[in-house]
Amino acid sequence: MYNYIYNRFFELSSPYFDTGKNKFLCKNRFTRILKYLDFKKKKNKYYYADLLIEIYFLLIYPIFFPIAVFLYFNKYKIYIIDNKSFGDFLWEMSVLNTNKQNKKILIPVNSNFYFEIYQKTLFSKLIIIKNIFFSHGLLILNNYNFLHIDILDKKVVIEPKHYINYDYPLDHYKNLKEYILAKKLKKIDFSRKKLNFKKIKEFNLRLKDKNLAIINPRYVLGRNDEIRNSKINIFLKSINYLKSQNYLIIIFDDNKKFTKFSKIHKIECIDISKEINKLKQICAFYHCDIYIGSYSGMAHLTDLFKNKSIYTDEVFFNSIIANENCYVLPKKIKIKKKIFPYVDNIYNQFPNVNRNKNVLKNISFINISAIDLLKTLKVTLNNKKIIKPNKKNQINKAFNFIPKKIL
After folding, report:
1. Phi and psi of 145, rounded to 5°?
2. Which domain covers residue 339, as residue numbers?
């Protein structure tokens, strides 16, 4: 319960009010409480905890007015970041980093924040506040509209967590948080920035002279989304082809799950649990010529560096892709004995299929084939220009990035 309340302070300090179906902009604290009483029908210990936090913010934030005025005249702004998701962190920080208002942005975080090395290397002008006392004070000050900075610019926002109970049709895409941020990320390219790799000077120099491939087969357990995982043997043909083309191949591993595989196939395996190796990870994506793997976690560094990428075993069939320089190879849907081709309209019916438990009872998913991955890799490497996706509309859906040869 303590951790829940601790995290809810961050959630509820936002000017967006969460209805469970979406978030809408509601800046007035008193109005928020009335809305809360109206929307939240299920009354349990979490209901009362959230209500008390809402009342707490309403009562205490006027006391902080002199501090708010001081921060305002000293050109400070406050933004509450999502520090649970690495992808959200990278996207939001990238957009904040382009702030042209000449404001100093303060970002309060909690003890779950583990992205310091990425912040210092990629977003050094943004100020992270991790001290529990000052961090909490900034959550209260964020209630002043003149201090809060809003990068979404929307009255209604739909987040991934809302997908659990709702499958949103395509006409809602422009309210999706990912869509809003991905649109802004199009104009952001970190590959041209000068980054500081002095602590890993030898590693940086070595990568400059290499054709570099990063392999990232997703294998995460215990998060109720194992259907997103890949089978590493699918990558083997592509790995051998990359070797034949004199590519240095790197796998970043966090719990030694690929150590044995890397030794057998002579791939450089870097333990990402070590802090210095997180800097090496940034450096590797900075120099990366081709990324192959899941579009999650570290893959969102490709959104910043615009690396040529092949995103594998995707089950967010209609998810938003921020890096347009890519191909996507989704898993195929199987119902009973029938495997549906990508051109079948069934894929458009499940924008949030991996979160819909009722759907999962009736269908299974087929991993991509090693041959399809190898075909896509050869097309990608031979394409010297930016990959042109198979786009049918202006929305960067995953399905618009399936290579035509695979369709």
Report:
1. -60, -30
2. 208-401
Enclosing H/E stretch for 335:
strand 332-335
Instruction: Give kind and range of the element (H or E) at residue 288.
Output: none
My answer on whether 180 and 294 are in the same domain is no
SS3 letters across 94-136: HHHHCCCCCCEEEEECCCCCCCHHHHHHHCCCCEEECCHHHHH
* The two structure tokens encoding residue 76: 């400070």
Distance CA 142, CA 159 (A): 21
pLDDT truncated to tens, each residue of the chain (407 aa)?
666 777 788 888 888 888 777 888 888 888 888 888 877 667 788 888 888 998 999 999 999 999 999 999 999 999 998 777 899 999 999 999 987 677 899 999 987 788 999 999 999 999 999 988 999 999 999 999 999 998 988 888 888 767 655 555 556 777 888 888 998 998 899 988 999 999 999 999 999 989 999 999 887 665 666 777 888 899 999 999 999 999 999 999 877 778 888 889 989 999 998 999 999 999 999 999 999 999 988 999 999 999 999 999 988 777 889 998 999 999 888 888 888 888 787 777 665 555 555 666 778 888 999 999 999 999 999 876 656 666 555 567 787 888 877 76
Q: How far apart are CA 382 and CA 375, in angstroms?
A: 11
Q: Which amino acid is at 381?
A: L
State whether 134 and 212 are in the same domain.
no
Residue 374 in any domain: the answer is yes
Q: CB count, 10 Å around CB of 404?
A: 8
Q: Counting beta carbons within 10 angstroms of the beta carbon of residue 240, is it exposed (0 to 12), middle (13 to 18) or buried (19 or more)?
A: exposed
Global pTM?
0.90
Which single residue is written with the structure tokens 């920080």? 93
> Could you give the CA distance from residue 407 to residue 341 in angstroms, rounded to a whole number?
8
CB-based contact 75:99 (threshold 8 Å): no
Inter-residue contact 215 to 270 (CB < 8 Å): no
Who's near 135: CB < 8 A, 6+ residues apart?
108, 109, 110, 129
For position 338, which CATH number holds? 3.40.50.2000
Ramachandran sector of residue 75 (left: φ over 0; alpha: ψ -120 to 50; beta: rest): left
